[in-house]
């Protein structure tokens, strides 16, 4: 299941699973900054589970997995909160949840 696909310089929403359509966002300048954070709008308990992120280019192939656990509903006001979860990778990838997008 595809949660979010960024390919050839843009988001590919046609490839995205309908359940996540309109609920995910990545930084617009992600290739320049190297920040591949994915934000999930209005997370619910059904979003809980393991997510994998694959980064692929001519010279690189990297897989990182994160476990997201959503407990109840929270109203977020102000800046996006950075939620770090346990990861199979030595450097945990931030998974951002933002109900204010």
Strand order of the largest sheet: 3-4-8-7
From the N-terminal CA to the C-terminal CA, the straight-line distance is 23 Å
Number of helices: 1
* Helix percentage range: under 10%
Rg, alpha carbons: 14 Å
Mean pLDDT: 78
Instruction: Bin the strand percentage.
Output: 25-35%
Task: Name the overall outline.
Answer: globular
Instruction: Describe the largest sheet.
Output: 4 strands, mixed
Oligomeric form: single chain
Broad structural category: mainly beta
Which stretches of 5+ consecutive residues score pLDDT under 50?
Answer: 84-92
Would you list the SSEs in sequence order as H and E? Answer: EEEHEEEEE
Overall strand count: 8
What would your notes on this structure say?
With 101 residues, this protein is mostly beta strands. The protein contains 1 helix and 8 strands, in the order βββαβββββ. It has one helix at 30-33, and strands at residues 6-7, 10-11, 24-26, 38-41, 49-56, 61-68, 81-83, 95-98. The strands form 3 sheets. It has a 4-stranded mixed sheet, with no helix packed on it. Strands 1-2 form a two-stranded antiparallel ribbon. β5 (49-56) and β6 form a beta hairpin. The longest helix has 4 residues, at 30-33. The radius of gyration is 14 Å and the shape is globular. Residues 84-92 have low confidence and may be disordered.
Provide a quick synopsis of the model:
By secondary structure, the chain is mostly beta strands. It is 4% helix and 34% strand.
List the helices and strands and how they pair.
Blueprint: E1 6-7, E2 10-11, E3 24-26, H1 30-33, E4 38-41, E5 49-56, E6 61-68, E7 81-83, E8 95-98
């Amino acid at each position: 299941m595809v949660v979010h696909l960024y390919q050839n310089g843009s988001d590919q929403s046609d490839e995205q699973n309908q359940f996540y359509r309109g609920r995910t966002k990545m930084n617009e300048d992600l290739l320049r900054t190297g920040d591949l954070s994915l934000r999930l709008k209005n997370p619910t308990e059904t979003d809980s589970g393991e997510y994998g992120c694959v980064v692929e280019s001519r010279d690189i192939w990297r897989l990182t997995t994160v476990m997201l656990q959503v407990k109840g509903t929270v109203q977020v006001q102000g800046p996006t909160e950075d939620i770090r979860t346990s990861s199979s990778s030595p450097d945990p990838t931030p998974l951002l949840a933002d109900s204010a997008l």
